[in-house]
Design brief:
The protein is an all-alpha fold. Helix content is 75%, strand content 1%. The protein is built from 14 helices and two strands. It starts with a helix and ends with a helix. It is found in: Cell membrane. Pfam families: BPD_transp_2. It is a multi-pass membrane protein. Keywords: Cell membrane, Membrane, Sugar transport, Transmembrane, Transmembrane helix, Transport.
Length: 304
């Protein structure tokens, strides 16, 4: 047994990556919408809907890939609904996002009951799960193989998406237009950018990321859908994006921090600490981090 085994890192690191995956996917979606000036408050409901759509579609088709696509589409459609509410009906972005979260929680529970007769779980549906991926050569390396190989396919997708989103926002014409809209919609409009189109696109893509995060919950983290199974991860993703200072890499590190907090909480429950207390840790950590961030920013502004 190696020193790393003794320190528990061989078990802890994969646990952190697994817990971080849905948070990171949703946070990247929030990042895209935020940089376009339309913060996706409905990300929690989009994750939940994606989780539900993935289970139902994979059970209906017998294909995990079809389930993943359904989850992405479900999240994107809810992003389009939120965009329509804001851009066409001129409703408030924050209130519309909150309403979408409530509607998603109630709607998925209702549909689950209509399909299975059970309001709690989708155990009667023969849904599929997405696979884990073994990396050739690395998988056979002691310790390193355990740390880097054998993770869920969406875990790799989430971390590979980080540089992709970063390059998109900073190196591509569409990404630069999106950031211009977020910085100053009026100036962007004067420059000939279709502000509404960019913000609608941002919310749809943001919803697709959130739906993918939901697919991981029901087709990777576990193999079924349960009522309110997103359990606030969408709101934690919002905190991760804020803690990430508007950058893809910063959002990733913030997601890892929050994922580590949740993994530690789960581990401490196994050591006999009160589960009710430990379940608060993943939610207390982002609050504390945001308070520290806000105070630091106030000091910087005061010095300016």
């Amino acid at each position: 047994m190696t020193e790393l085994d003794l320190m528990g890192l061989v078990d802890f690191v994969p646990a952190v990556l697994r817990v971080t995956t849905p948070i990171l996917l949703a946070a990247l979606g929030v990042l895209i919408s935020d940089r376009a000036g339309v913060l996706n408050i409905g990300v929690e409901g989009m994750m939940l809907s994606g989780a539900f759509a993935g289970v139902v579609a994979s059970a209906a088709t017998g294909s995990a890939t079809a389930g993943l696509l359904a989850a992405i589409v479900a999240g994107g459609l809810l992003g389009a609904v939120l965009a329509a509410a804001v851009q066409i009906l001129k409703s408030d972005l924050i209130l519309s996002g909150i309403a979408l979260n409530i509607a998603a929680a109630a709607g998925t529970t209702l549909l689950l009951f209509l399909m299975t007769g059970d309001k709690g779980m989708s155990g009667s549906l023969a849904s599929k799960v997405l696979p884990n991926v073994a990396i050739p050569w690395i998988a056979d390396v002691p310790v390193l193989g355990t740390l880097l190989s054998g993770h869920h396919v969406l875990t790799y997708a989430a971390f590979l998406a980080v540089p992709g989103v970063g390059i998109f926002l900073t190196r591509t014409p569409l990404g630069l237009r999106l950031r211009a809209v977020g910085e100053s919609p009026e100036s962007a409009a004067i420059a000939g950018i279709n502000v509404v189109r960019v913000q609608v696109m941002a919310l749809i893509v943001s919803g697709a990321f959130a739906g993918t995060g939901g697919a991981f919950l029901s087709m990777g983290y576990v193999s079924w859908f349960s009522q309110d199974m997103s359990a606030g991860r969408g709101f934690i993703a919002l905190a991760a994006e804020v803690m990430g200072h508007g950058g893809a890499s910063g959002t990733m590190f913030a997601s890892l921090l929050l994922g580590a907090a949740e993994a530690i909480a789960v581990a401490l429950q196994g050591r006999g600490l009160p589960s009710e207390l430990m379940q608060t840790v993943p939610y207390v950590v982002p609050v504390v981090a945001l308070v520290v961030y806000a105070r630091r920013r106030q000091r910087l502004l005061a010095r300016a």
